[in-house]
Amino acid sequence: MLAKELISDTVPCLRTSDTANKALQWMEIFRISHLPIVNDKELLGVISDTDIYDLNSTDEPIGNHELSLFTPYVFYNQHIYEVLELISKLKLTMVPVLNEKKEYMGLIVMQDIVREFANISALQNPGGIIVLELNDHDYSLSQVANIVESNNTKILSMYITSTKIAGELNLTLKMNKTDLTDVIATFERFGYKIKASFMEDKDMDSFYDERYEAFLRYLNT
Questions:
Q1: Of 17, 73, 173, 187, which residue is most buried, by most CB within 10 angstroms?
Q2: How far is it, in rounded angstroms, from Cα 104 to Cα 43?
Q3: In whole angstroms, how far apart are CA 198 and each of 123, 131, 152, 177, 218?
Q4: Looking at the DSSP assignment, which residues form a beta bridge with residue 170?
Q5: Domain span at residue 204?
Q6: 164 & 106 share domain
Q7: How far is CA 166 from CA 131, 134, 136, 138, 161, in A?
């Protein structure tokens, strides 16, 4: 998934002739806190709702104010992970997209990133989840995959998170079956520690809700 495939077809950019009040109205409508200011195809910078509240008059055109704008952007051919990294690092609610000539193409809003990330992580596919707790030097993707596949099960998606303990990892596996009893038994036979498992629909819903909320907290920290 590339940045150009995530460009919003509804959220507009600002022009220097637009008033700060108009910017705030758009931010409220689209539930974002940032908007790009564009002159023709040139990205002049990104303005936030905080920047606008600091202005003396919100009825005047934005171009009448002296603004100290920062200019974050991604190129149209960058991967969704790179987009997500920039949004998280700079605490943005959207990010402008430029072409190879650094011309403005559009913007990506955080909500669309979260939705697409859920899609590529197979969160909406039926199946169970296992969370393994292991040391980083014990991690072997090939062995994990072999254990899962030896039970006629497939991994739909996976991700690794670090814990507060140095060298310790949590490996979360989403699989294509709800009943993972045999998979869990095989992992335990190979000495893996099962930190958590989710096989019931109500448990899965709770898991997704918790992960979604944690993901949003991460983006906003």
A1: 173
A2: 6
A3: 13, 9, 18, 11, 23
A4: 133, 161
A5: 121-220
A6: no
A7: 18, 11, 9, 14, 12
CATH number of 202's domain: 3.30.70.260
CB atoms within 10 A of CB 141: 11
For tokens 């079956």, name the residue: 177
Number of domains in the chain: 2
Tokens of 67: 């603004």
Please state the separation of Cα 32 from the chain's center in Å.
15
> pTM for the whole thing?
0.66
DSSP 16: T
Q: List, run by run, the mean pLDDT of 10-residue segments along the chain (221 residues).
A: 90 93 94 94 92 82 81 93 87 94 95 76 74 89 94 90 83 90 93 86 56 61 58
Q: Which among 157, 191, 190 is positioned nearest to 174, based on CA atoms?
A: 157
